[in-house]
Design brief:
The complex is a heterodimer of chains A (about 120) and B (about 110).
Chain A: E1 4-7, E2 10-13, E3 19-25, E4 32-38, E5 44-51, E6 57-58, E7 67-73, E8 76-81, E9 90-97, E10 105-106, E11 110-114
Chain B: E1 4-7, E2 10-14, E3 19-25, E4 32-38, E5 44-51, E6 56-59, E7 62-67, E8 72-77, E9 86-93, E10 97-99, E11 103-108
Parallel strand pairs in B: 2-11
Antiparallel strand pairs in B: 1-3, 3-8, 4-5, 4-9, 6-7, 7-8, 9-10, 9-11
The chains are: A mainly beta (about 120), B mainly beta (about 110).
């Protein structure tokens, strides 16, 4: 149990376009989902926390107008990178939790390349 | 603000050695401490989760301990194998995780 999927696994887009990444909890209802990004040879950095039906909470330094997060249901959160630039190229990973005190279950990640 | 540090940053050992990876965190008010491995270009594989009320967890050749008072966790790997080569990450926090800087492990055959 506790499987989280992400789609797509890889995406290449042109500079200036927008890209949507989906994160789904397949066998449980996720009260909270988290979005992380990871640059090459670096650790994961938390971008934002999203709760179903409410606005996401962004970490300091993360542009909320650039990284749009929607958590429309208890099993789906989406991250949209708007007007993507090459510096947005990164590995994006989501996680989901049933409860704030429970462990986080991580998706397999999405590798975004902006050309 | 929680800060998580892992030592060493990189480690290379011959096959069969027992080894210890260290994780330090600055804020002891955590819910969980979780250890992951990450293979190059891949996502995270959860290894062990220690809840704040627990002191250690074991899974096969892995044992993780947690000392909240000193802000430390260790991951012990027994009888290391080349397949253990990966980056190991610890993460701690309350409802949101802060990840450590990682330890890149290479086990030589």
């Amino acid at each position: 149990g506790a499987v989280v999927s992400q789609h797509p696994s890889r995406v290449i887009c042109k500079s200036g376009t927008s890209v949507k990444i989906e994160c789904r909890s397949l066998d449980f209802q996720a009260t909270t989902m988290f979005w992380y990004r990871q640059f090459p040879k670096q650790s994961l950095m938390l971008m934002a926390t999203s709760n179903e039906g409410s606005k996401a909470t962004y970490e300091q330094g993360v542009e909320k107008d650039k990284f749009l997060i929607n958590h429309a249901s208890l099993t789906l959160s989406t991250l949209t990178v708007t007007s993507a630039h090459p510096e947005d190229s990164s590995f994006y990973i989501c996680s989901a939790t049933r409860d704030r005190a429970y462990e986080q279950y991580f998706g397999p990640g999405t590798r975004l390349t902006v050309t | 603000k929680q800060e998580v540090t892992q030592i060493p940053a990189a480690l290379s050992v011959p096959e069969g050695e027992n080894l210890v990876l260290n994780c330090s965190f600055t804020d002891s008010a955590i819910y969980n401490l979780q250890w992951f491995r990450q293979d190059p270009g891949k996502g995270l594989t959860s290894l062990l989760l220690i809840q704040s009320s627990q002191r250690e967890q074991t899974s096969g050749r892995l044992n993780a301990s947690l000392d909240k008072s000193s802000g430390r966790s260790t991951l012990y790997i027994a009888a290391s194998q080349p397949g253990d080569s990966a980056t190991y990450l610890c993460a701690s926090g309350t409802y949101k995780y802060i990840f450590g800087t990682g330890t890149r492990l290479k086990v030589l055959a």
